[in-house]
Design brief:
Blueprint (H helix, E strand, L loop, with lengths): L7 E3 L2 E2 L2 E14 L5 E4 L6 E14 L4 E5 L6 E9 L2 E5 L6 E3 L3 E8 L2 E4 L4 E3 L4 E8 L2 E3 L11 E3 L5 E5 L2 E3 L15 E3 L2 E3 L1
Parallel strand pairs: 1-3, 2-4, 3-5, 4-6, 5-7, 5-8, 6-9, 7-10, 8-11, 9-12, 10-13, 11-14, 12-15, 13-16, 14-17, 16-18, 17-19
Amino acid sequence: LKGQDAAVFKGGFKLSGAVGTFATDNLEVVANGGDIFINLDNVEGVTAETIDIRNTVIDGFSKSVIYASNTADKFDIADITFYNVVVKNQGTGQGVFDLRNGRYGSFTLEESTCTGGRDFLRIDAPCVINAVYVKNNTLDNLNNPANAGGVLCVRATPTTYEVTGNIFANIVNSISGRTAAMKPKMKKNVWYN
């Protein structure tokens, strides 16, 4: 979906089956009572070459920006990219970027601004993922609920896991509160509380 003239879309997306490429560009997506922006949770599973979200405002979802449950290993996605997105008014129902099972080539969050939410980045141990990049973002007031697992809760074992050039502001909980969470290669990040 490509928006023009400040296009606003109300609600989220539930993907299933063979998707090919799913992309948004120049769009504002308002939850309108919804809980998940991109929901991969279904009995068929999801295969995709790319999920590519660019220049998109994601506003007011009560649970996740993207979610793949831990019920079955039915997700096979080559690349997930969020570039120049704004995530705001995010709820605390579950992880903001929440992948609990499946196979992924890479996950990238870049040049984005994110505020609120619970476990900010959650990629659980059953996931097989090659690379995780969190770079050049402004990340504000993340992971505030006491029951949260941390800002970066990656328990999968990616070959490459880099957190670079981000501004972390008003972080009151731990970076990684769960046991067995991977430690990213961190460089050139700024912390402000």
